[in-house]
Amino acid sequence: ELLKARLAQNLGPISGLAIVAKSKGIFEKNGLDVTVANFTSGKQCLDTVIGGGADIATTAEAPVTAAAMAGQPIAFVAGMEYSDLKTVVTAKAAIKTRADLRDKRIGFTAGTGSEVYTATLLKSAGLTAKDVTLVNLRPQEMLPALAAGSIDAIDTWEPHIANAKKALGEAVAELDTSGTYSETFNIVVMRPYLDANPALIEKFIAALIDAEVWMKAHPDDAITVVADAVGMKRDELAPIWTDYVYRVRLDDRLVEILKTHSAWRLESGNHPPGAVMPDFSKVVVSEPLKKMAPERVTLSWK
Amino acid sequence: MQDGTSAPQRIAVRSSGRNRRPDSARLRRLNILVGALSLPLFVGLWELASRSGAVNMVLFPPPTVVAAAVLEWIRSGQFLVDLTASLYRVTTGFMVGGALGILFGILTGQFPVMSSLLSPLFHILRPIPPIAFVPIVILWFGLSEAGKLFLVVWGVFFTVWLSTHIGVQKVDRGLIRAALMLGTPRRQMLQEIVLLGALPYIVVGLRTAVSISFYTLVAAELAGTFAGIVYRIEIAQQNMQTGQVMGGLAALGLISFIADRLFAVLAERTVWWR
Amino acid sequence: MQDGTSAPQRIAVRSSGRNRRPDSARLRRLNILVGALSLPLFVGLWELASRSGAVNMVLFPPPTVVAAAVLEWIRSGQFLVDLTASLYRVTTGFMVGGALGILFGILTGQFPVMSSLLSPLFHILRPIPPIAFVPIVILWFGLSEAGKLFLVVWGVFFTVWLSTHIGVQKVDRGLIRAALMLGTPRRQMLQEIVLLGALPYIVVGLRTAVSISFYTLVAAELAGTFAGIVYRIEIAQQNMQTGQVMGGLAALGLISFIADRLFAVLAERTVWWR
Amino acid sequence: MSGSRSIVKLALASSPASVDSARKQPAIQVSNLSIVFDTHRGQTVAVDRVSFDVAPGEFVCVVGPSGCGKSTVLNTIAGLEVPYEGDILVEGSPVGGPRPDVGMVFQQPHLFPWKSVRRNIAHGPRMHRKSRKEANAIADDLIAMIGLKRFADAYPNTLSGGMQQRVAIARALANQPRVLLMDEPFGALDAQTRAVMQDNLLELRDRIKATIVFVTHDIDEAILLADRVLIMSAGPGRILREVAVKLPRPRSSTIMVEPSYLSLKKDCLDVIRAEGARAFNQSDSN
Amino acid sequence: MSGSRSIVKLALASSPASVDSARKQPAIQVSNLSIVFDTHRGQTVAVDRVSFDVAPGEFVCVVGPSGCGKSTVLNTIAGLEVPYEGDILVEGSPVGGPRPDVGMVFQQPHLFPWKSVRRNIAHGPRMHRKSRKEANAIADDLIAMIGLKRFADAYPNTLSGGMQQRVAIARALANQPRVLLMDEPFGALDAQTRAVMQDNLLELRDRIKATIVFVTHDIDEAILLADRVLIMSAGPGRILREVAVKLPRPRSSTIMVEPSYLSLKKDCLDVIRAEGARAFNQSDSN
Ligand SMILES: Nc1ncnc2c1ncn2[C@@H]1O[C@H](COP(=O)(O)OP(=O)(O)OP(=O)(O)O)[C@@H](O)[C@H]1O
Ligand SMILES: Nc1ncnc2c1ncn2[C@@H]1O[C@H](COP(=O)(O)OP(=O)(O)OP(=O)(O)O)[C@@H](O)[C@H]1O
Ligand SMILES: [Mg+2]
Ligand SMILES: [Mg+2]
What we know:
The complex is a heteropentamer, with 1 copy of chain A, 2 copies of chain B and 2 copies of chain D.
Chain A: E1 3-10, H1 16-23, H2 26-29, E2 32-39, H3 42-50, E3 56-60, H4 61-69, E4 74-84, E5 86-90, E6 105-108, H5 113-124, E7 133-136, H6 139-147, E8 153-156, H7 160-168, E9 172-175, E10 182-190, H8 191-196, H9 198-217, H10 219-230, H11 234-237, E11 245-251, H12 252-268, H13 280-283, H14 287-292, E12 297-298
Parallel strand pairs in A: 1-2, 1-3, 6-7, 6-8, 11-12
Antiparallel strand pairs in A: 3-10, 4-10, 4-11, 5-8, 5-9
Helix pairs in contact in A: 1-9, 1-10, 3-4, 4-12, 6-7, 9-10
Chain B: H1 24-51, H2 63-75, H3 78-110, H4 112-125, H5 134-141, H6 145-169, H7 173-181, H8 186-197, H9 199-220, E1 223-225, H10 229-238, H11 242-270
Chain D: E1 8-9, H1 16-23, E2 28-39, E3 42-54, E4 59-63, H2 70-77, E5 85-90, E6 93-94, E7 102-105, H3 117-127, H4 132-145, H5 161-173, E8 179-183, H6 191-208, E9 211-215, H7 219-225, E10 228-232, E11 239-244, H8 259-285
Helix pairs in contact in D: 3-4, 3-5, 4-5
């Protein structure tokens, strides 16, 4: 008898593990019958889970910190992917280093990791938000804005960076910002759900770990499966495949990112009314993962 | 009732009539020609604009590229699935929203108390873009198809309600008086006089609502879907597959065009006394 | 022309008239009462539903929480900025789109050749949701205010065009014939007879377009904006500031409500002969 | 002057109908009726303290200059014009709105454009819960009466003005109302058709015993049809004269040459002519 | 039978006007005009091979049973009913559409609801590039003529039926058209107002020398006004008789008792009566 679960998933390569687990029958092998609902943002996934429309969400850190600050009883059970955010600049803008960003117009996506990345990037270059013009754009609108000459640089994630380079060719270049900020993609459920269905979550995590193993073993097949699922062409996904780091884990870096993000929220006022720094030791629940693969939990606080 | 694109004045034509306006036949042929050329002309201009190099061809692909993308989409079999899903949502939502809109429009248009009670509320809710309350709809309906329908119904309902409401008040008072003097009871008054008298306005509302239903599809297919034209557009947009994006938009246009045409024909039949 | 919420039949009332329908004054008072209670009732129900615990209070905050958020929003001074930005976009877009819609509606409604040329194109473009081609608009207009206006104009234009087009064909043929026999030249025919004859339909289109303009604001304020009610809603949604989200939606509703009311009054004055 | 006292009955014709009406309950009792319209130019007094009674089964014609308030009075009796001042009793009860036993033929045909001639006429019977078959039978009878058999299935917008008017009359008759208000019903008909319609109307009236108030601008028609003729003054409309017509029935058009007819007609015309001239001047001077 | 040959001229009245018209260019020349309407019930032949001429300055009245095609013929001459079969020449040139020198008073008033009485009447002159002041002066003259001075600023929906009709007449006259087509223009007027309007019309015609085709259902009116009366048959309309009226002008209503008048009227009525009976039966049998 399979356990039934509803997964709200952001349809993109960042959800690669869940995609593989679903399409390769790995959920079933782990005793799960998962119904997948696709969204175009992790924020919607989490909202859906909070509202009771689904049981398990795949989501980036931004919605997690917002929900935690709003006092929602969420449980962060595992990280499953991370990837660096990157910057593409127009050739015309003559931006060679981070410091050249001064006085430039930078496209970012408000409320997402892109915003935190941008803040971190500017700080690392010794700049503040006042030294540049920040323009809020959805990733798919950044390219046309670059092409129209409305902005000089974009801060976003793959595949939009690759798309920009492909679509605009010589007119743009990537700025080296590696290591500045990684956006994480994670598994979040509601606390009451977790308490009621501990076995299900464990099986779910086990399935993701199996998927990770399978992906390592069959990288070519993995690209094909994911590209198919998200509607990309295989040869578009292949070049950026290595940018996605798939690893089911709970580590200090994850918590650090959550804290950085929360701090940014508090600092910038982008938080629910009356929010304080959440106690992430309550939000992050390591038991399920510990039970399935203790070596993947490397949290220093426990 | 005349359909959207026909000539403004209908003239009974007999083959033997010698004294039609001399140029009317020529004019009619010209119109058909112009009508047939309208879309090809537009597509041609688009191709030119796109290939001229003035804009980025990847971001603004020419019709040929779009056609290729659509063909690919159709060949994959996905198109049919998407089309069916979207069509189902639009038609069901349109019918439910339209029926409710007509019903409430007649109620508020005819009964002042109903109008006092509901009109302020409807006027306040009317402009709220469906996309802005997708989270609330998910909260209420979960990820069911009902929630998606609700979003389509939302947009259609208010459009049809408003024009029905106004239409009811524009019903020829002479006809109402005549019906009153013939002892028409209230119920029959609504269905025999008010509904038919307001029909031209209701049709305007319904035809406007055809496009509104496609607007709201964006909200409906944003969340928790697996198929649908707009859903596919959204995905293609994320992946910078602009050919498919444009193809999807063109598909929306064509579906609605056909729907509107069917609708106009239907409307013409409904207004049988013309 | 009667406004949306007034009683269906206007009756001249004189204080000395002894034989009004006996209950008409009481009915009128009842209506005013019901009208005044309509929104408070709705807000009350909302508060109850939200506090009942049946739904998540954070995702579906009660009016009191919303009010607090809006107050905070206003106090920060940001509200005025957002309001101004959105109002500017909506009113400008509405006026430009409305004017173009009326113009083209009269052209296609009156001249078959224009209709053959443009109607198919308009019918195909009409349902395309503005939000779906934001990238293309950015490509064309950059991140300028013009692009945002274009999106609002898009939605308003097609709505007004369609109802004007239909309205022009519904103009009383008797009046057109009378005007023809009086030697009215074509130009004057348009402005003196056709425009005024189609006015009731144009008003329906314009009033529908009021809410459409708010729909399209979502698209317009999605990209490259720094202020605006919908922009703020978007941000608040990201930040789980649901009180502000709802407050923003309520603000949209109220603005449009006021706009519609003003509009109804204006329409009533425009149809001066009634 | 008060409405009821201003009515001067012509000596030569003290109407038995109005004596009757003093004894029996009148079918229509109008006392001191005034109607004022609000317009953007201020108030227009359309009807000024009009009083008259109509006995059950009586046929009263109303004549008067264009714009004097004939239609307004009829609409008010029908219960369509509120508010009004004064009292109107129809069959003893005050008028507050349209009522099923009062029928009306409007000055404009006001046919339902979406119904064929037959269904326009059958509308009333249908509303009175007659079966479709019954209603159609009634309609077909009336269609034969108005001479439009060939057009039974035609829609109103394909009919000529006179044809529409005939349909409107038939539609009102289909309900067999106890009180029938007719506002220039034969205005758009040629002499021949009009004569046929007049005969039909009188015949039907005898059959259903209806009380009829009939507005016309044709004095001959008024005298030919009426038991009593009310002559109204130019707007604001008051009742100038009440002329009882005691000619024997049935009256054929041949009576138009008889002296009693001619003298009646002359009386009426004198009143009208004097008033007409005054009206034209008055409206010009004001 | 072919239209033009079927016209039987009454022996007693060989019209000098029609002799005139043979010499001069006729103002209106209708030959073999047929009009068929398409309806959902099939085709209705409204007018069947009608031919007649109208000489410049002539006043022709058209009478005929309700629904015989009078309005249709007028509309066609006005250039409003296309397509038609046959030939129509107005002042020598074929009719393809409305033309500025042809004026029309429709059977319905068709007033512009958004214009006051004054501006309705001033509309024509304004369209003919007269200044607002000039146009208003013309309008005010006509308003006085139709006795509506008090209502110059009223909107049509506040006018009675007869008042609206008078405005429609004034509106057509304001343009001083060379050819004036009038479709039962006095149908909704009381006898007195109608007489005043008749006088005004004749006076104006003498001044502007217009050619007039005038539809009426009142034989007295036709004989009083016309140089020639066309009597149409029941639909499909054909021209049954053409009666020249050679009574001296100006004709006052007192001529109605003169023998020449009465004999003319009797002739007309005989034709009409025979036809009317036929029409009623025909429409019933079909
Ligand atoms: N809806 C209205 N608003 C304002 N004034 C009106 C309205 N209806 C009628 N009147 C005025 O009331 C007066 C009487 O009008 P009514 O229609 O009763 O005249 P009538 O006697 O029927 O004339 P006719 O013989 O021309 O039909 C007129 O002066 C008219 O202008
Ligand atoms: N638009 C139309 N469509 C179809 N048939 C029509 C139309 N207009 C008129 N007819 C038909 O043409 C015939 C003549 O109509 P017309 O209006 O010319 O009559 P008329 O002589 O003016 O009658 P009346 O004296 O009643 O006004 C009628 O049988 C009528 O049914
Ligand atoms: Mg009247
Ligand atoms: Mg006619």
